[in-house]
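[Protein data]
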Amino acid sequence: MSTCRIEIDLSAVDHNYRLVRAALDGLPPGAAHAPAVAPAPARARTHLCAIVKQNAYGLGVARIAKRLAALGAEMLAVYDLAEARVLADMPIRTPVLVLMPVEHFDRSDAMYRLAVSGRLHATLHSRRQAAQLIATANHLGVSFPVHVQLDTGMSRGGCLPDEAAELVELAASHPRLRLAGLMTHLSSPRHDEAFTREQTSLFRAWVGTVRPALGRLALRGHPAPLLHLANTAAAFLDPALHGSMVRVGEGLYGFGDHAAGSLGGAPGGHEAHQPEPALAAHAAALTPVMRWTSHVVHIHRVPPGWPAGYARTWFARRASRLGIVPVGYADGYPLALSNKGMVRITSLMWDRRRTMAPNEDAARQPLPTWWAPVVGRVSMDQIVIDLTDVPEHAAVVGAEIELIGRDPGSANHLPTMARLAGTITHELLCRLRPDAERVYISSADEPSPLPQGATPEPHQRAPEALIAGSIHSVAAASHAAGTIAALSSAGSAHAVVGSRLRAVGS
């Protein structure tokens, strides 16, 4: 039997997806669950790439990816081929973007099926990798949609402007490649507004330098590549950062309000990026999708002055009742929460019908709950909690313990725990024990799969003048000019790129 349980509310995934979708479409948060959510007729829809790497942030990629595909996500993104193979074997048709440099695989690999179907999108990082990918494509007899990644200051993959421009020329001319996207990654959208503007300006300027290649593609009837630079934090800051696609991860899992700037002051003395009010309202309405629970397995009484845990970092100030919960840092509970963490006693027994709500009967009064501090050092596979102030009828062996809750105002809300532990929500989610029991619960029906043809691949619907201006054949596409203009306006107050990137862009 598992010592802990991770409960994932798929209805919350639905809610968050629709909320992100409404934010991208320029609709108010209340429109997220309207019968027909669609952008204004004159506005092309910004595509949504759902990040499902690292087993969908530890929540279980098989169920999460299927759900997001059914909801209409235009693309799914993973980090490596192992993660892509899982998606290749799933009954979905959504394209898959692999973010790490892809070079080799053979016909016996599940990736071959993904490539033959045209669903495998590769990220181009360098000339060397591009040559290896072309050799693989020649060997397999396939072609790859590719996204050229420009490094604008993240230094986590991609290449500098000159080499990136060569990759665009290669992808635009080689029969084994199809240019599907131009991308970069913003390093500090929530904390450093000035540098975010610099990165955006450099990306926009670089897109301008590759317009001739994009123009030749357009004249041959190829759709314009997607422009994408925004992650969850940027998506909830400013529409000018959206491009024609955004890459959203933690927002879909309910953690975006802090990403939109509510963490407070920016580190290093930089000015924090204040979110646009409408987008901040969307971020604040996101719902965490998961709870993490365990149970009390042992209770014992100790006298005043009795220590707990390795290195005796805690001593009882009074006669105390201590409980043992069978989770520790090996399960993902942070060592940094030693003598700091708080857990909730829900008044329910852990061995019960599984539900997201501690109070299973809405007609009853809410059940009382209590909080207990983690005392002593977190061990590899257990924590000690102080149950002295919890009534004895509630603090019993088998009582449910909520380690991570869904209430944003609670002490065990994941962003609150992350701040207290000196880390981020991403890390805590990904550290959750992979073999822990995961239970999927939905208070609503599964979303209906979209009818055939309702969600074509993103490149088939890309607004064709995202790089409009010199490409006369697609100059009539109003959103194209609008998107690049929006990216331009993001840096209009910063016409001169800052000194940190001036040398890079020269």
In short: Confidence is low (pLDDT under 50) at residues 36-42, 259-266, 445-486, 488-506. Residues 122 and 318 are 61 Å apart (CA to CA).
